[in-house]
């Protein structure tokens, strides 16, 4: 029998924590503009997100949705400690987040696997890096458990280039789960997948989440994905200076499947509200783009006239 120690990633929690786990207080991110020599060809600073405050409770599944380019990844990267907030604070379990850490596991859209390592190698390497004191046997066991969890048995010795997109994303999810983070952060994890694989993996995530309830923050562009998986949906405004427009509570009972969710009396209302928000914000962004294009082509014409 294997004894769990505190430094063991799969050690059972003493008791299920409750209350606020992650707290964002007035978080803003400003990307500095380019400074040309003698101030020529300079561009202004860009305020991506503006004073975003958000409290996330333990073991909730939160999705973030908003128009393209509004600042979703920027916000997630700040929570993950991969990027620093310009102003404001992020705390996890009342401790300030100052950089990346094993308490926050990341799953990326482009998988970010190491191509020279097998499936088992990629997962094992992550566990070994975070928990260097674990025995080889224990690491092997954690790798097998997580490979089983994401349904990849038989693919252990394959390299990333030998896998489909869906399988690569399963490895990414297994790798993040293997270090047993307190919070799982996922940036459009199914964005690169075909519709069928995507639908299948969404249901897999729901199944895994039922088994290992933990806090998840996931970015998505899919209304149906958000409704299937979330307890709360954070809807962001368009950028620049994006904010949280509204947070929706999703009341569907768990465990869920697509069919039961779609037949819930609250489904149509929530879907319509999300569609209206996204349509409104995206239409504004597109109109601004067209106007900017018109302005620049008018400027080009006047330049031509001068020649
Ligand atoms: N390193 C950077 N330097 C300057 N601007 C940046 C940088 N990273 C992001 N931005 C800008 O910040 C804004 C938000 O970008 P972000 O990638 O967070 O958007 P997003 O909501 O994740 O978009 P998408 O849905 O397309 O993934 C964009 O206008 C982007 O151009
Ligand atoms: Mg993004």
Automatic annotation (TrEMBL):
One Pfam family recorded for the sequence: ABC_tran
EC number of the protein: 3.6.3.-
GO molecular-function term, one example from the UniProt record: ATP binding
Cited InterPro entries: AAA+_ATPase, ABC_transporter-like_ATP-bd, ABC_transporter-like_CS, ABC_transporter_ATP-bind, NO3_transporter_ATP-bd-like, P-loop_NTPase
Lipid bilayer topology: Peripheral membrane protein
Subcellular location: Cell inner membrane
Gene Ontology CC entries for this record: plasma membrane
SUPFAM superfamilies assigned: P-loop containing nucleoside triphosphate hydrolases
Main location: membrane
Stretches assigned to the ABC transporter domain: 22-263
Keyword Aminoacyl-tRNA synthetase belongs to the record: no
Gene3D superfamilies noted in UniProt: P-loop containing nucleotide triphosphate hydrolases (3.40.50.300)
UniProt keyword terms in alphabetical order: ATP-binding, Cell membrane, Hydrolase, Membrane, Nucleotide-binding, Translocase, Transport
Family in the record: Belongs to the ABC transporter superfamily. Nitrate/nitrite/cyanate uptake transporter (NitT) (TC 3.A.1.16) family.
PANTHER family: NITRATE ABC TRANSPORTER ATP-BINDING PROTEIN, TAURINE IMPORT ATP-BINDING PROTEIN-RELATED
Protein name: Bicarbonate transport ATP-binding protein CmpD
Organism: Acaryochloris thomasi RCC1774
